[in-house]
Specification:
397 residues, alpha+beta, 7-stranded antiparallel beta sheet, Naphthalene 1,2-dioxygenase Alpha Subunit, Chain A, domain 1, 11 helices, globular
């Protein structure tokens, strides 16, 4: 972690301690209202796919998933087939997973290791850089410029142990403007060298209902009272870097830091809370089996009322047998909490909203994260391609 990032984290810790001492949080100026139709309207949903998910950088993998040269990951992202691969030169690249012959995917969804990608339709072959290197029965096929028929590359960035991809191959969006310095704070986790423990995918409600939950501590003692919620505060403090947010609680436990010199404040304490990466990522820290995180990748489904979330459990160190057992129990608990508490409630909320139960959804003065998230959604949808970088440089929706 660089010194500037650590100083920012320490400043946030001081801020949290101040609120913990005073028993306070920060409040928004007023209650915020979101039209209920934003969670189920078909036209609105299409706008969100086109203007948000198909234009902005998405975290499609952790470095731990593509650790070695030849590692690849193929996935479908809001209807776009994407192939990620790390070349023998160590660089990670992204392509539209579509053969330049007839358009079939050159790799089926999943992960593995390969030096070449051979389309299963007609055996056209591509290398790790997406270059077309072989055509089956080339003399019979006819003459084409092979250098002009490689896989279509997508803009990609690897920072702080995470891999961002933009689904628009012609995007001119400035990545530094979009990240707003947030990647340096994420560097506090040191994810570059972490290990992939396990991953799974859960089905959920509209993607914004699911995302609202990542920013919500108000729910903890109520929705999660049967699991861990009774031990948690429902008060939240929010910190923002452009559209990305960190949510923490002004816990009284932080007061113990006052007896410790700041230079000895641990990385665990300084990076606690939930870190969200707009528009679809949540990172939460845990201790099951050792220092670990759950990286939740949230994607819209095929209809407004559907989403799916891939939960990627990463561990700081390769676990031994006992730590693996503890990590498995932790991950199973998290699966239950999200599937049976968060998303089960969200699906019921989805049905009620679709039935016309409410015209508006409310976010209280204590729910500032939701205010910012929905304001960013509105601004991004309304912003033309050539003004996106300027929007993120401005820093506020």
């Amino acid at each position: 972690m660089d010194n500037a990032a650590r100083e920012q984290l320490i400043e946030m810790a001081r801020h949290n301690i101040g609120h913990a001492q005073n028993g306070t949080i920060e409040h928004e100026a007023d209650v915020f209202r979101v039209p209920a139709a934003n969670y189920f309207d078909e036209q609105r949903f299409k706008l969100e796919i086109d203007k948000i998910f198909k234009r902005l950088p998405l975290v499609l993998a952790a470095t731990a998933e593509l650790r070695e040269p030849g590692d690849y990951k193929a996935m479908d992202v809001v209807g776009m087939p994407v192939l990620l691969t790390r070349g023998s030169d160590g660089e990670v690249r992204a392509f539209i997973n579509s053969c330049s012959h007839r358009g079939a995917p050159v790799v089926t969804s999943g992960s593995g290791k390969a030096k070449r990608f051979v389309c299963g339709y007609h055996a056209w072959t591509f290398d790790q850089k997406g270059k077309l290197v072989a055509i089956a029965s080339k003399d019979d096929f006819g003459s084409i410029d092979m250098s002009a028929h490689g896989l279509v590359p997508l803009p990609i960035t690897e920072r702080s142990g995470l891999i961002w991809v933009i689904l628009d191959p012609d995007s001119k969006l400035d990545m530094d403007a979009f990240l707003s310095g947030y990647d340096k704070l994420l560097g506090a986790f040191g994810l570059e060298n972490w290990h992939l423990f396990e991953a799974r995918t859960l089905k959920g409600p509209n993607w914004k209902i699911a995302y609202d939950g990542y920013l919500d501590l108000y729910q903890l003692p109520v929705l999660h009272r049967e699991t861990f919620g009774e031990q948690m505060s429902n008060q939240a403090l929010y910190y923002a870097w452009g559209p990305h947010q960190r949510v923490t609680s002004p816990s009284k436990q932080l007061l113990d830091l006052l007896d410790i010199p700041e230079e000895k404040w641990s990385r665990d304490i300084l990076s606690a809370g939930v870190w969200t990466i707009f528009p679809h990522i949540s990172i939460a820290s845990f201790r099951g089996g050792g220092r670990s995180i759950m990286l939740s990748q949230l994607f819209p489904g095929e209809t407004p009322g559907e989403s799916y979330t891939t939960q990627i459990y990463l561990m700081e160190k390769e676990p031994d047998e006992a730590q693996r057992h503890d990590a498995y129990k932790q991950f199973k608990l998290l699966e239950y909490v999200v599937q049976e508490e968060d998303y089960a409630t969200g699906l019921r909320q989805q049905r009620a909203l679709e039935a016309g139960a409410r015209k508006e959804v409310l976010f209280g003065r204590n729910e500032g994260g939701g205010h910012r998230f929905h304001r960013w959604v509105e601004r991004i949808i309304a912003t033309p391609d050539d003004e996106l970088t300027a929007l993120f440089q401005a820093g506020t929706p």
